Amino acid sequence: MVASLVGDPARANMLTALMNGRALTASELAQEAGITPQTASSHLGKLEAGGLIEPEKQGRHRYYRLTDPDVAGVLEGLAGLAARAGHMRVRTGPKDPALRRARICYDHLAGDLGVQMLDSMRARRLVRQKKQDIELTTEGERFLAKHLQISPDMLAHPRRPVCKACLDWSERRHHLAGTLGATMMARFTELKWAARDATPGSRVVNFTRTGEKSFAALFGNGGD
Amino acid sequence: MVASLVGDPARANMLTALMNGRALTASELAQEAGITPQTASSHLGKLEAGGLIEPEKQGRHRYYRLTDPDVAGVLEGLAGLAARAGHMRVRTGPKDPALRRARICYDHLAGDLGVQMLDSMRARRLVRQKKQDIELTTEGERFLAKHLQISPDMLAHPRRPVCKACLDWSERRHHLAGTLGATMMARFTELKWAARDATPGSRVVNFTRTGEKSFAALFGNGGD
DNA sequence: ACAACGCTTCGGCTATCATCGAAGCATGAA
DNA sequence: TTCATGCTTCGATGATAGCCGAAGCGTTGT
Questions:
Q1: Is A45 helix (H, G, I), strand (E, B) or coil?
Q2: Which nucleotide is nearest to B55 (CA to C1')?
Q3: Are A117 and A176 within 8 A, CB to CB?
Q4: Tens digit of pLDDT for each residue in A167-223?
């Protein structure tokens, strides 16, 4: 059963660490979960057998990543259920407020700023959202081309939707996923508006001062 | 952790039994999971504490149901991951082929016929589907009003989308969820085209002979 | 009032599985 | 070749948690 794989705390920590979309080595994951490499090896084998993660050999390292954005989606859904039961992640620490503000959800922006961005885009009619479904409008395409140099053909992907509503576990509202969400996040990084936290395994996204201003100019509360 | 709750086989069986959307008593769930009432009571308490199920007292019975369609969604997602890993449900039996053909996924039609229905609706432009997102077209509204006496205002719901793509674990393709999926299934039942299997806890949907013909007339392969 | 029924709580048994030490097997470096 | 590093396999230990029998509590029915 897949759920029992996610159920174990050590494995859950590993998967959470992989939610930032990066591939991590076996030993990094071991440290992340607070267990010895031997134990980690066993867990990783099971997760791989369950199809949740994929290995990639590179020299004498083995990098693991989540097999699929779908896996990340289910994981996020699970986290959502856990959040509403009050079982907030025990993993408390100083980075918690930062996590709430801006973090990576697999490959796109989540947290307060992620929710705020989608809110603003919806208010400015850059996207249309009917309940769970999101669609990019022509105004939205113009906006993206003008302000973020993103053209529609950059968003095409054989098996992934352009827009997707992703439930945010801290805000309990939607943020933007899909190829658009991923591309926008990538652009923010390129523009040096924001950068993923340096500490390995962290999902925190730190905005620079100018980045914060630019982001607010595009998606600030004024548009709400 | 929520995932560990779903991870236990006994609890997983209980939850699977509740996926048909009906509420079941504690003893029914115990029998469904193949355990004694004492053990079941413990499990049900944990599931309730985890916010996955909700009790409802009624005389000397306690009925349990899934708290939310969201829970069903996450469960279905988990089943999808399990399916693609080849970990098909061990729960084999004579009802398996019937399950593959037509079953209830929380409150809407799933299985071969469910997938076929969405395929046909897409081909006839009753809905537009962009990757994961489904939208009802005006032709679709006309079709529903004419053939199934379903008007758009019957589909409005504060917190649930009209259309939603739900990944089918047996077909590994999408079928139609959301209020439309639920309403259509309800109409099929009212029209006596189909009925849920009588055996308690079964997700199988049995089509009558005339129901099968009527269904095929609307959503048959001819439209594909 | 009494009995039957549905469910829960308690206590003890058992098995599964996570965990780690030690050893083995690769790959890369000296 | 020789050593170091990263990871895996093996074996043994220990703790968590599922499980059931017995008993208790509340509700329904006679």
A1: helix
A2: C7
A3: yes
A4: 665 555 678 888 999 999 999 999 999 998 876 557 788 899 889 899 999 997 653
DSSP H or E run through B12: helix B9-18
Residue A82: its pLDDT value, please? 87
Task: Outline where B26-167 has alpha helix (H).
Answer: 26-33, 37-49, 69-84, 96-101, 112-123, 138-148
User: For residue A195, with 0-12 CB atoms within 10 Å meaning exposed, 13-18 middle and 19 or more buried, which class applies?
Assistant: middle
| B57 CB closer than 7 A to any strand C atom | no
Domains of chain A: residue spans and CATH = 2-67 (1.10.10.10), 72-223 (no CATH)
Q: What backbone phi and psi angles, to 5 degrees, belong to B193?
A: -80, -30
User: Cβ of A9 < 7 Å from strand D?
Assistant: no
Q: Which residue has the tokens 């390129």?
A: A190
Residue type, B105: C
Q: Which residues contact B52 (CB under 8 A, 6 or more apart)?
A: A81, B2, B5, B6, B15, B66, B67, B71
What's the number of CA atoms in the CB half-sphere (13 Å) around residue A92?
Answer: 3
- B1 neighbors A9 (Cβ within 8 angstroms): yes
Q: Within 10 Å of residue A145's Cβ, how many Cβ atoms?
A: 12
Q: How far is CA A72 from the centre of its chain?
A: 8
C-alpha A94 chain-centroid distance: 20
* DSSP 3-state of B103: strand
pLDDT tops 80 at residue A88: no
Residue with minimal CA–C1' distance to D10 is A38
Determine the distance from the C-alpha atom of residue B3 to the mean position of all C-alpha atoms in its chain, rounded to a whole number: 21
